[in-house]
Design a protein that fits this description.
Helices cover 17% and strands 21% of the residues. It is of the alpha+beta class. Strands 1, 3, 6, 7, 8, 9, 13, 14, 15, 16, 17 and 18 form a 12-stranded mixed sheet that branches. Strands 2-5-10 form a 3-stranded antiparallel sheet, with no helix packed on it. The longest helix is centred in the middle third of the chain and has 13 residues, at 279-291. It is globular, with a radius of gyration of 23 Å. The protein starts with a helix and ends in a 5-residue tail after the last strand. The relative contact order is 0.17. The structure holds a DNA duplex.
Length: 437
DNA sequence: TCGACTCACACGTTTGAAGGGT
DNA sequence: AACCCTTCAAACGTGTGAGTCG
């Protein structure tokens, strides 16, 4: 595990932990603000989107407070969710898979983070209403620390065990359909199931970087883009659902969470009670291995005669979450007339999505966009992300930009004036960060 | 010694290309 | 030629458990 102080010596000892910077936002509805500390909906992180907002109030500038840290996960009362800050009046978001999230939250949601990046499960799936059907929007997701504590599993529950690690570079995941019209977003639930979490501070793929054993809160942001290629943005709405709070781990600590994940996640089907990868079967395999080569009977067993069958999950479901894919073929943006603007804009993505998705061939940069996208032979390139890494602007993060590794260098688009060039949907926006604590 | 982390593994799911039929 | 459907293989996502590290 890398330590930011080793990676970024310039941080020095002044990179200290401490309470969030105080601030009050008079524009935030008191009913929502009361009792909450919105830990990190700080302007700098989204500043890149804000300067161009046309006559919109800076609703993101001052986070309302979050409730005090509960002693045990899952014991907090049901919040008035979603909590929202917005300059997009009338826009509302609802969490589609809320029941699943609540189930996990009642136990204490844990999310595995790995060096290579691990998907969130459950994923954030929301439905949105109140958008202008004609206007175009970007859907973004980021994850922010809930508090300044590090946690430890104490056999039965999570307990704070010291101060949090320093903040890592903030990254924002951009939904692959972005930008799309309000009608598109409202037509079907919007799923962020491709978001990946990593604990590698040098992650070259643009996954969201988290510390292990810390408590996090996903947030969803809607940004109205007045036009494609526009330098102006029509407003921002940010939402969070308190039941989506989780603790990042490198290995599951709470066995109940493991059970829930196995029961609910289709990819973990093999670990269910009747699966061939369940404990009983794995033990049997180990014994067979120790005894020698497989017998004919075991071969037949392995080739599909096993008593597998449907899952008899105690949670009463087979696949309890089947997340809807945002079907690219339905992307009306691909059918829309494309204005003649190049660079790493949304249109550039729509014209050459593969070029943005980690194609092994020449990758686009701001000024050098390949005419013919190269798509790799395998699927590995399909969703690896391009993302924009910004140098700290005036009053900005001051967090040093992680050095880019050679093979991915074209993905890292450095600096530049606001508003940002668009890094490509399905990609991540690295907006740097400033130490919050 | 212990807790956190990494890695290889086996298995199931997803995805997209290829091929055939209409 | 265009569309639809099925099949198939590779890539991907998953939790596990042994091993490693500090």
């Amino acid at each position: 595990m890398y330590h930011p102080r080793e990676l970024y010596p310039s941080l020095g000892t002044s990179y200290r932990l401490g309470p969030p910077q105080p601030g009050a936002d008079s524009t935030f509805p008191p009913a929502l603000a009361e009792g909450y500390r919105y830990s990190d909906l700080d302007a700098p992180k989204l500043d890149c989107f804000l300067p161009g907002i046309e006559a919109a109030p800076r609703t993101l500038a001052a986070p309302p407070p979050l409730p005090p840290l509960p002693p045990v996960l899952g014991t907090e009362p049901a919040p008035p969710a979603p909590e929202a800050l917005h300059s997009l009046p009338g826009v509302s978001l609802s969490l589609e898979n809320r029941e699943l999230w609540k189930e996990f939250n009642s136990v204490g949601t844990e999310m595995i983070i790995t060096k290579a990046g691990r998907r969130m499960f459950p994923a954030c799936r929301v439905s949105v209403t109140g958008l202008d059907p004609e206007a175009r929007y970007l859907f973004l997701l980021d994850v922010v620390p809930v508090d300044g504590a590090r946690y430890r599993w104490q056999g039965r529950r999570w307990e704070p065990s010291g101060k949090a690690e320093p903040r890592l570079p903030d990254r924002v995941y951009i939904h692959p359909d972005s930008p799309a019209t309000g009608a598109h977003w409202m037509r079907q639930p919007v799923s962020f199931h491709r978001v990946k979490l990593t604990n590698s501070t040098l992650d070259p793929h643009g996954h969201l970087i988290l510390h292990s054993m810390h408590k996090y809160q996903p947030r969803i942001h809607l940004v109205r883009a007045a036009q494609l290629c526009s330098q102006h943005w029509g407003g921002v709405a940010s939402f969070r659902f308190l039941e989506t709070t989780f603790i990042s781990v490198t290995a599951y600590q709470n066995p109940r969470i493991t059970q829930l994940k196995i029961a609910a996640n289709p990819f973990a089907k093999g670990f269910r009670e009747n699966g061939r990868n369940c404990k009983r079967e794995r033990d049997a395999r180990v014994k067979r291995k120790l005894r020698g080569p497989e017998t004919a009977a075991t071969k037949a067993y392995g080739s599909g005669d096993a008593p597998g069958g449907p899952c008899d999950s105690t949670l009463g479901g087979d696949v309890r979450e089947s997340e809807t894919e945002q079907v690219p073929a339905h992307r009306e943006a691909t059918l829309a007339p494309v204005p003649p603007c190049g660079g790493s804009s949304a249109e550039a993505y729509l014209l050459h999505p593969a070029a943005f998705h980690g194609a092994p061939g020449p990758l686009p940069t701001r000024t050098n966009f390949p005419e013919v996208p190269e798509s790799g032979p395998g699927r590995s390139a399909s969703y690896s992300a391009a993302f924009l890494e910004l140098q700290a602007g005036p009053g900005g993060s001051g967090y040093p930009v992680a050095p880019s590794t050679a093979p991915f260098a074209p993905h890292f688009l450095q600096g530049g004036p606001f508003p940002l060039s668009y890094p490509g949907p399905g990609g991540y926006l690295d907006v740097g960060s400033k130490p919050m604590y």
